[in-house]
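In this supplementary section we document a worked example of the pipeline. Step one takes a protein sequence of length 204 as its only input; no multiple sequence alignment statistics are reported here. Step two produces a three-dimensional model, which step three serialises into structure tokens for compact storage. The input and output of this example are shown verbatim.
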Amino acid sequence: MGFRPTAAASFYYRVKPKVKGGAKKLLKGKHPLAEAIKETEYPYIDLLPADFSTRNMDLLLEDKSSKQLKNLAEEYDYVFIDAPPGISLLSENIFNAADFILLPMIPSPLSVRSYEMVKTYFAEHELKMQKIIPFFTLIDARKTIHKQTIIAQQKDNKHILQTGIPYSSDMEKMGIHQAPVATFAPQGKAAMAYSNLWKEVKKK
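The serialised model returned by step three reads:
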């Protein structure tokens, strides 16, 4: 389920980035969520595509209801919501509706600061801190600051996953292949890292 107006996931999975009636009618319940979901070329993976109308998603959300998502529980084992970074009305609704928040961080002070802001929001709104599952991504092992940040954060915060995603040109090639990295470079560092990351997430 994509809420990014750039529709990157829709592009990678070769799904037309168009929601009938736009995001407004979808959220208002005028079009059932299930009818907007599209099959992909990959078994067990369906996608609710993003389109340009989702740029106003913050304005369209009026409450913190997750009724539309609950209707999918009987058909799907997992529902992933791909949302832009930052704290907004959209992210606040996701914080309340989701069972877990996968929070990618670049190993830099600014990204870690954003993580701290999310934790502060959770504390102020009495949300379960265990919901947040942070991990490092775009790791450049050549950069001292990346190595130092990862070591320091994982030492002081047991919630940060041990598995990180390395910076890799394979990730950029997803746009060329229009496919997930595991399909065209399954033995590459990025694909192997994502496989290990998912194993660690499932243990949570």
